Amino acid sequence: MAKAKKQKERKIIKVVYFDEQAARDYIDIVNGGRLDWSTEEDKEKLAKIVAEIDAEIGGGFKLLTWLKASLNSKVGSEYNRETKSIIGAKLTSTLLTDYISIASADDTVYKFNDCIVYAPENSISIYKMYSPYTIIFPKQDIPIDLEKLNEALENARGYYEMKIFNEDPESSILRFNIKAFRNNYNLSDLTKMKLKYFAIKVGTCDVGKLDMSKEFDFSKPTPTAESVLQQGTSISETLLTVYDVIFAGVENE
Fold first, then answer.
1. Residue 96 to residue 91: CA distance in whole angstroms
2. pLDDT tens digits, residue range 116-164?
3. What is the Cα–Cα distance from 121 to 210, expressed in whole angstroms?
4. How far apart are alpha carbons 146 and 16 in whole angstroms?
5. What is the mean pLDDT of the chain?
6. Measuring CA to CA, which of 110, 113, 134, 211 is 20 to 30 A from 36?
7. What are phi and psi of 89, to 5 degrees?
8. What is the distance between the alpha carbons of residues 114 and 250, in angstroms, rounded to a whole number?
9. Where in the chain are the domains?
10. Rounded distance between C-alpha atoms, residue 229 and residue 202, angstroms
11. 11 vs 21: CA distance, rounded Å
């Protein structure tokens, strides 16, 4: 009798999107506050970070000495900039691995596996995806000032909604922080990639409200799931659950 093949453990092999601030807040909440450097576990983390920085910058790196000199402006600007960059990268790397480890075991963090997403039709998300290409059109052929519209979006909107391709029944909206993309990826790249998403449930949204023409219609609040059930109307068919995405990455096959 042939032995069943052991299922290969899937691991993240490339980061596409990581909302560092949201991840940091989540880890702070789980830990009951910022890292406590008096504990052995966190001492080991700090020692590992310092050792990696020391190896990258050169022998004899002293973190506390550097911090004091940096505050007193006694460090060369180029060296200071390079050191800050390396320290920032190491801390981000630690944050990323900590987040994936903790969130993977947390049922309150929703995981969407092997997902392809797309922008809802006639939504601001779809405009955002293609707005860089609008510069090729003559201004006189466009009824609105696209530069002003782009500026307005930059100032007024930080998150953009995407739907999940082939979700049956359609029930979810994944929302992305436009500033959290990594490795030069952007919103439009998500439509071509099958990714794993870690996300937090934050509320609900009427799918009709995603239409750009209704984006600024504040005349009627979005109904809650409870009110829809009480009313017994068909509105529930258009009410989707909204998830803020914290992490997106490529898994091995």
1. 9
2. 999 999 898 988 888 777 777 776 666 667 677 777 777 778 899 999 9
3. 8
4. 28
5. 77
6. 110
7. -65, -40
8. 9
9. 18-68+82-107, 111-219+237-251
10. 19
11. 23
